[in-house]
Amino acid sequence: MTPRISLRQWNRTLLHRQHLIERVDDDAIEVIDRCVGLQSQDPQAAFFALESRIDDFDPAELDSLLTDRDVVRMALHRGTVFLMDALDARWMRPIFHPIFDAGVRLHARGLRDATVEQATEVATELFASTDGPVPIADLRASLTARWPHEPPADLVAAVRYALPLVQTPPRGLWRQSGAPSYVLLDDWIGDGEPGVTGDEAVRDLIRMYLRGFGPSTIAGVQLWSGLRGLGPIMRAMEADWELAQFVGPHDETLYDLEGLRPADPDVAVPVRFVAPYDNAVFAKADRIRVADPDVYAQTQTRNGQSPGFVLVDGRLAATWQVRDGAVALTELTDLGAAQRRECEKEAARLSAFAAR
């Protein structure tokens, strides 16, 4: 008989694997690997994601990883900017080709005289002739100089989807901002072959996700990654004894790595302030394990920007934002007095971190 997992046990398992029950004394790159990258269209979000997981995290550690080119910020899962181990980015980028190809087709519709291939050739020549990263304004100017009557947004977007471009520092460093500058991945980290390719690369991505976020539905893996058609692959992995199956709290079919077991459902969980866009909460299909739909709906905005999330007893109960140098709390559920005090204590901790 397929074992069952309760909602509380599913919740505790996710939080345990994401280091959101107890902070760890590990290197930042190890935690980034276990999270299979950190969503990073907000360049500061990754710092808060690591602060919630690593004991006494120092932002300078991540700055060094970025400037030393050990990690990169580039479009990967779902076509969204992620902070990723550079060597993992090399083999992951090709398996997300269907996502980028769809983006290319979308923006190609806005072009009349230029083709995506021509725009990509002009951009590649610009990268080759430039000593260092290319600011986005220079990329736009180069493309519009060649095709002055084409929509600049479609030209630039088509190139960004077609080429494996890294957003380079200083954007992405602690408390720094500015417009993006781009460079080709291999020019930034050096030439090399992907560590894994083809179907085995897709299987590796599934393994990594389940190690950090499992157990999961097939839809959970697909919506997190942006890839489709993973059902046959995951069922074949189960048939090969790589994956185990569970029945979820609402009769979902859940998959996990064989040999991993769900966490203790009775373990106590401290209040955790989780980063904006953090995939422990933000990833869609299996969100019920940490957030009730009506509560999560209160966090959504018209522009798609994400607040920080506050987990109380492991579930979404509030949001946070940095305002005027301090962390401000917005309650989404009725917190008890003790819970509110714990939230305020954690908010003070995060405010001190944000001021570093």
List the defining traits of the structure above.
four-stranded antiparallel β-sheet; 16 helices; globular; 44% helix; six-stranded antiparallel β-sheet; 356 residues
What would you say this structure looks like, in words?
Strands 1-3-2-5-6-4 form a six-stranded antiparallel beta sheet. It contains 16 helices and twelve strands. The chain has a domain of 83 residues. A hairpin with a 5-residue loop joins β2 and β3. It is globular. The protein has 356 residues and is of the alpha+beta class. Keywords: DNA-binding. This is Winged helix DNA-binding domain-containing protein. InterPro entries: AlkZ-like.
Order of helices and strands: HHEHHEEHHHEHHEEHHHHEEEHHEEEH
State the strand order across the main sheet: 1-3-2-5-6-4
List segments where confidence is low: pLDDT < 50 over at least 5 consecutive residues. Answer: none
Radius of gyration: 21 Å
The helix tally amounts to 16
Q: Report the average pLDDT across residues.
A: 96
Broad shape: globular
Strand content: 15-25%
- How can the largest sheet be summarized? 6 strands, antiparallel
Number of strands: 12
The computed structural class is alpha+beta
**Euclidean distance between termini CA atoms:** 53 Å
Helix content: 40-55%
GO molecular function: DNA binding
InterPro entries: AlkZ-like
Keywords: DNA-binding
Pfam families: AlkZ-like
